[in-house]
Amino acid sequence: MSSSEAIPQCLHKYLGKPDPRVKEWFLLNSPINLIIIYSVYFTFLICGSKFMKNKNPLGLRKILVAYNFFQIVFSAYICKEICVSAYSLQHSLICTPLNTANNLSTLRLAKAFWIYYLSKAIDLIDTMFFVLRKKESQLTFLHIYHHTSMLFNWYIGVLYVPGGQATVSVGLNSFVHVIMYTYYMLSAMGPQVKKYLWWKKYLTQLQMIQFVLLIVHLVIGYRKGCHKPPWLVYFTVTYLFTMVFLFLKYYMHTYQIFYGGKKPAGVDTKAGGDTRHANKIK
Question: What residues act catalytically?
Answer without folding.
Answer: 146
